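BUG: 3D viewer hangs when loading the predicted structure for this chain

Environment: internal workstation, default settings.
Expected: structure renders.
Actual: progress bar stalls at 90%.

Input used:
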Amino acid sequence: MSEQREERHQHFETLAIHAGQEPDEATGAVVPPIYQVSTYKQDGVGGLRGGYEYSRSANPTRTALEENLAALDGGRRGLAFASGLAAEDCLLRTLLTPGDHVVIPNDAYGGTFRLISKVVERWGVEWSVADTSDPQAVRAALRPRTKAIWVETPSNPLLGISDIAALAGVARDAGVKLVVDNTFASPYLQQPLALGADVVVYSTTKYMGGHSDVVGGALVVNDDTLGEELAYHQNAMGAVAGPFDAWLVMRGIKTLAVRMDRHSANAERIAELLSSHNKVTRVYYPGLAEHPGHEVATKQMRSYGGMVSFRVAGGEQAAVEVCNRAKLFTLGESLGGVESLIEHPGLMTHASTAGSLLEVPADLVRLSVGIESVDDLLADLTQALG
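Structure tokens produced before the viewer hung:
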């Protein structure tokens, strides 16, 4: 416990490299080994060596990642999963039972919407949509059996900003849990638990991994009891991060701070270009002074992140053509890697929201701005816009 207290006083960049990453006792290796193992020799019946018996329940490589995740978010418990949606599924089935209700944002990742509206709803859970940038709208959406308020900030794909501290007050008054999907920001840019959130959700596939070579998810909490409940369900459901995937995410986290600084700096330059381009009708980026969430983002984020969305004059076909003409920006789903990506949310990542309250504009393009030379990125976007 004294080591944990000491860690809490260390800066983020130090924690990213060292928390949960003690040199290997057997060899002194400074990088945690990949324990590619399914079972463990026990010291007699029921005598677990270090608490390990079967790698679905616990694995030393995953333990190292989970300790690192908890430290980065200032939490007491971190849990690593096979994907971001696996983490969300575990959380929803831990917090909710049939008949319960959850408030979701009017701008959310299509996979989250699909999970709640097509899978969890069949289990008897009710949901409703609210503009989470407006705490009063969220308060009005609460019901007697509401158990959770789900928030993305910045949101996907419209980069909406929600005031975490204000929503924590709404949740606290109602006796419900506030869940914050912090994937777009990462723990380097934003600390939801410190602002009053109960649970932080990540797709570690994105900025945490950072190299487009791993799929993973995570939950971080400050409450020991909730942490134990989530760990029970994590083991019971079994969608855990494998040891090599856990190792890849840890590898990525070590450079998270320096990468996020570059992602953010590049994205700010790109948002400025797009704001002045005659083929662009609107830019969504919280770093712009005209963004409606700019003041809140400035208050709760270190900087504004590497995601930029914009709408193109000429409608859906024009937006698709911009995506197809891009050369340095790779046409592809996902985000948060060192390379820049471009996509059409309405036909790609958010197709599942078509016809719903979460449907995205047909002329929308989303960018995941990488860490290449910003001058090269600006030139590519300029030619893609025509």
